[in-house]
Design goal:
Blueprint: H1 2-8, H2 10-29, H3 36-47, E1 51-52, H4 53-60, H5 64-76, E2 80-85, E3 88-93, H6 95-98, H7 101-119, H8 121-138
Antiparallel strand pairs: 1-3, 2-3
Helix pairs in contact: 2-7, 4-5, 7-8
């Protein structure tokens, strides 16, 4: 009976998937010396230099306090800079941070290859898109 509860519980199943994917991502991003979340934050900064901390938080679905801690750690490592423009904190990559772009991309591709090898490319892509859509719905964004 418990097995049925666990299999049919979105909370349990989503957390199980999160633990599995977190372990895979941490393994693949270890080469970069960054956590997966820090690497994705840098990827967002590469995409839009001078992005606001608020916009980064919204993009990555992270609370302001979490964003502040992540950014501070990356500033201490010399990978990011922050400058104040009015009420906004604008985030940019340093040269040292920009130098990691290729490594981060390779880590991301290795992670993608790892799960698509297990799931298949089509199923991996469909699952990712479906989970993104469901997350938006559960956050009442639609």
């Amino acid at each position: 009976m418990l097995n049925n509860y666990l299999q049919e519980c979105l909370y349990f199943t989503a957390n199980r998937l999160s633990r599995v994917m977190t372990k895979m991502a941490e393994d693949e991003f270890a080469v970069s010396g960054l956590s997966p979340t820090s690497a994705f934050l840098l990827m967002a900064v590469y995409e839009k230099d001078g992005i606001s901390q608020k916009e980064l938080g919204e993009l990555l679905h992270l609370q302001p306090s979490t964003m502040t801690r992540l950014i501070e750690k990356l500033i201490i490592k010399g990978l990011l800079t922050s400058r104040i423009d009015g009420r906004l904190s604008l985030i940019s990559a340093t040269e040292k941070g920009k130098a990691l772009e290729g490594t981060i991309h390779e880590c991301w591709m290795s992670l993608r290859k790892r799960y698509t090898t297990l799931l298949g490319e089509k199923e991996g892509d469909e699952l990712s898109l479906h989970l993104f859509t469901v997350s938006d719905r559960l956050e009442n964004k639609e």
